[in-house]
Amino acid sequence: TVPGQVAAVDLGATSGRVIVGRIEHGQTGPELRTQHIARFANDPVRTRDGLHWNLLELYRQTLAGLALAERGAPGEIASVGIDSWAVDYGLLRGGRSLGVPYHYRDARCETGVAAVHARVSAAELYARNGLQHLPFNTVFQLATEGDLLASADRLLLIPDLLAHWLTGAEVAERTNASTTGLLDARTQEWDLELAESLGIPGRILPQLVNPGTRLGPLSPEVAAVVGRPLELVAVASHDTASAVAAIPSTGQDFAYVSCGTWGLVGLELDAPVLTEAARAANFTNEGGVAGTTRFLHNVMGLWLLSESLRHWERGTDAQRSSRLAELLDAAARVTGPVQIFDVNDAVFMPPGDIPGRIGAWFTERGERAPEGEAAIVRSIVESLAAAFADAVATGARLADREVRVIHVVGGGSQNRLLCQALADRAGLPVVAGPVEATAMGNMLVQAQALGQIGPELADLRAVVSRSAPVVTYLPGSAPAAAAP
Ligand code: LRH
Known about the structure:
18 helices; glycerol kinase activity; nucleotide-binding; rhamnulokinase activity; disordered C terminus; six-stranded mixed β-sheet; binds 6-deoxy-beta-L-fructofuranose; globular; single chain; 20 strands
């Protein structure tokens, strides 16, 4: 057989997965058929010097997942693509890793923010890179590296670093590079002048490549582990860019919520919006596939639920997800007014006792805090829905666009309570699904690179529409309390 399948390695901040897919010809056109191969926890590790990703474990799981995929369909997998959360990176010198990559929730970022702003004002930064202020943007993290920057000869973002370990390639995939704060928002090229003015040597910034670039085969040592020298394709390696690519929309008038650990809420535009109003509202202009702009706002997402669950009981990943379903059922039955808090408050960023911090948030404001797990979960869900609805309205106003429908993709698309609450609060239909939008975007960019489906973004989205069922929630159609 001609190898026709593609494998996606999709690394989220709480779990990773390996999924394979193949294009089949359905009645109305090509469809994507997928198969889950492996799912593994992504548990960060705190050491004396801070919070780190266990990147070696993620790499090991990637290799194991690819080997399993290859064994399941010998000779049929043509290529692999990797996506992950944004902003984090490794520094290298002569191919050797300089330290263990930090987690973006590590507390060190604050000093980096002060160091950068001492040299470049927030307004100038935004005018150049178009990014919302997030204290962990790569540019702020780099400002904490000190001498290490002088020693390094390469900076590779997480998916690019894994790609390097797999093949030897040293590139920066553009959608993810757009989250560093070092890419010019207009040209999507490195802003070397900005980098150098912040003491970041231009030589460490690799060559930029677009999603769909074929990076070559796995190196012989890796191929020996996986079973075959599969080809690596640079996909939209920022997970959110892959997810937005896979929104099953046919029109232009949609907003989206890519809802996983974060809720990324915004619009797809042809060009960045770099106005003072957009900066004040903390809207970002990240790079999407096919040169699109992802004009969005980071809302604290399912992190609030997953971290609360982790606090309540330290179970395995599988236990946590069934426990979540139970808690959401209980939350849906909570009666009486639901208290709303500001999910974006920075107090909720670090790992730890999220329920305790929610309680404190209310009592510090003289309000009654929700009591018991079900009431807290209900408050989280309604507060997320309120923040999502608000971000949709703000994004539409800032971009001067009309929004007629909100697409929710990712894990949050399975949360019925959340989707109905969003429809109610936004007064718009919510189309939920696919849950694996990120992996689908990853696989379909590979399918495009291999010439299996049409080259346009619309071709990719049409495949998603044919392949994944969606659920529509209409505003006011069901009382939220009865949703699940
Ligand atoms: C979501 C995400 C998001 C970034 C954050 C660091 O996984 O990539 O788009 O802002 O992680």
